[in-house]
Amino acid sequence: MKKLKIASLFAVFALVATPALMADGLEIKAGVGSVKAASDRAGFDAGIGYSIGIERFFAIVPEVNFNWLNFDGSLGSGSAGQSGLSGGSTPSSSFYTLPVLLNARILIPMGGDETPVVQPIITAGAGYGWSHYSYSYAGNSSKTDLSGFMYQASLGMLINLGMISEGSASSTSILVEAGYRGGTLAYSGTNYDWSGYVVRAGVNLGF
């Protein structure tokens, strides 16, 4: 857990240290995401990042993500936790995962010089992830920390609120995205598949 806390502080510092004048938009988004190593269960998934415009149709987006899975029941073989349990008590498991990723984003040209109301986007990136797993069963509990390489790719759109109403000065956009996040996290030499789908919605403040 200590390593996860240190990683979280480092990730937040990295985002804050990005020069504000370079940031075209602060992004905040939330939704759901699944993890194969948790028997493909899905849970809360969120992200915060900066969209840094390089040119009109290309941006760099460093971001910190957070995925939380909490459920009752045992995990199957090959999962990052206890498996094959039976008896009168119900196992309880929680995963807290922190992927820190650097993304490249392509804004698909829609024609014309004005910013479109709906801007399709393609985003892909890679980075590193940390996960803390806690487990309890029949009065016993255990904790495990995993880490490893992660990557993601998604399709989405920006709905530019400033272009909906003529004369509006708003630079805020609604962000919707759906995609795939993968990677392998390891514990004590054993690798676990951390891939799964991610569906989120949020806002881009100032893109």
What features would you describe in this structure?
With 207 residues, the protein is mainly beta. The protein has a single domain (2-205), classed as Porin, CATH 2.40.160.20. Helices cover 10% and strands 62% of the residues. It has an 8-stranded antiparallel barrel with strand order 1-2-3-4-5-6-7-9. Strand 2 and strand 3 (58-72) form a beta hairpin.
Strand portion, in percent?
over 45%
- Report the top-level CATH class: Mainly Beta
Radius of gyration (CA) equals: 19 Å
Number of DSSP strand runs: 9
List the domain count as a whole number.
Answer: 1
Shape: elongated
Main pleated-sheet profile: 8 strands, antiparallel, barrel
In the CATH hierarchy, the architecture is Beta Barrel
- Calculate the terminal CA-CA distance, rounded to whole Å: 35 Å
For the largest sheet, list the strands in their spatial order: 1-2-3-4-5-6-7-9
Coarse structural class: mainly beta
Order of helices and strands: HEEEEEEHEEE
Q: Roughly what is the average pLDDT, rounded to an integer?
A: 82
Strand and helix map with partners:
Layout: H1 2-17, E1 25-35, E2 41-55, E3 58-72, E4 92-107, E5 118-137, E6 140-160, H2 161-164, E7 172-187, E8 190-193, E9 196-205
Antiparallel strand pairs: 1-2, 1-9, 2-3, 3-4, 4-5, 5-6, 6-7, 7-8, 7-9
Short description:
It contains 2 helices and 9 strands.
Keywords:
about 210 residues, Porin, eight-stranded antiparallel beta barrel
